[in-house]
């Protein structure tokens, strides 16, 4: 399937967009890491969490580059070394974006609740759906192909519902960074560059998933 020229027509442009998005987030993060902030990422996230009454949410360092995330099960914000202890616009932007997810969790933000519930199904769809389709194609079993398509559709659903979750977390971060005096109105442009670059990675992943689903449907419907 991956050597099918038709597959490249469907997915290729969005795969390239994904590569560009990954390059852009890394280069933008590096650029904005050179612009100082008055607080480290961990300090900024703590201010944002405390302002929302989320004193029980812990902030921990974690290894890896741009491995920052919020764990809704443990109620823990985990920040990479470049974010946790660094005082830069990139660090406070990424840290407060993740703090935005903690606020969403506390407020039972509907898209986040739906996204979290969809994770197990999306994981199954990602790992099993494509293989079901490939096996069905080689065994000439249309039913198995369509079952694979249905399974992979869960991945598309997850990616689509993930967009408002990520965009909302970034919007919360931008508002709170200024409202809490962590950065100035003028400095918000630097944070926006980092968060907008991150947003492009989410958009690229969603478009790639949709294009892959479209390809699978096209192949399953092709009787030639």
UniProtKB/TrEMBL annotation:
Q: Write out the coiled-coil annotation as residue ranges.
A: none
Q: Where are its TM segments located?
A: 6-23, 143-161, 194-218
Which keywords does the record carry? Membrane, Transmembrane, Transmembrane helix
Which Pfam families would you find in this protein's record? Zn_peptidase_2
Cross-referenced InterPro entries: Zn_peptidase_2
Protein name as it appears in the record = Neutral zinc metallopeptidase
Q: Which organism is it from?
A: Roseimaritima ulvae
């Amino acid at each position: 399937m991956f050597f099918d020229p038709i597959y490249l027509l469907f997915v290729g442009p969005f795969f390239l967009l994904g590569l560009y998005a990954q390059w852009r987030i890394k280069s933008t993060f590096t650029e904005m890491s050179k612009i100082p902030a008055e607080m480290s990422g961990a300090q900024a996230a703590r201010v944002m969490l405390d302002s929302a009454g989320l004193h029980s949410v812990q902030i921990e360092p974690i290894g890896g580059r741009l491995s920052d995330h919020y764990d809704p099960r443990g109620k823990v914000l985990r920040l990479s070394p470049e974010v946790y202890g660094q005082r830069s616009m990139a660090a406070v932007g990424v840290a407060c974006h993740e703090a935005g997810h903690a606020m969403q969790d506390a407020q039972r933000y509907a898209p986040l609740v739906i996204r979290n519930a969809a994770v197990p199904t999306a994981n199954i769809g990602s790992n099993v759906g494509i293989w079901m389709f490939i096996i069905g194609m080689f065994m000439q079993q249309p039913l198995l192909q369509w079952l694979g398509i249905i399974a992979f559709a869960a991945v598309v659903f997850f990616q689509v519902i993930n967009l408002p979750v990520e965009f909302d977390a970034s919007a919360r971060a931008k508002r709170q960074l200024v409202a809490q005096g962590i950065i100035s109105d003028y400095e918000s442009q630097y944070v926006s560059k980092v968060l907008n670059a991150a947003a492009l990675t989410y958009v690229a992943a969603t478009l790639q998933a949709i294009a892959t689903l479209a390809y699978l449907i096209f192949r399953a419907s092709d009787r030639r």
